[in-house]
Amino acid sequence: MSDKIEMIDELKILIKPYIQDEEAYKNLHEDTDFIEDLKINSANLVDIILDIEDKYDIDIDNDSMDKMLSVKAALEIIKIKVAEK
Known about the structure:
The protein is mainly alpha-helical. 61% of the residues lie in helices and 0% in strands. The chain is globular, with a radius of gyration of 12 Å. This is Acyl carrier protein.
């Protein structure tokens, strides 16, 4: 598994098409909230999760999806799911 900075960079690429706040995107960090900070709507959040599943070849269950609201939460869930493979 790649290091955290690499994972954040990969995540940035996946979420780029869906962001509404360019300034928050430029300053993205672990505590960035997808909905509050980046203004990503819930339908697009589902698209991002599907993109994450494809990229890392993992399945993200509904409980985990509900928790994936920030960069930090997404990184933790990705790490757990990749480790379970």
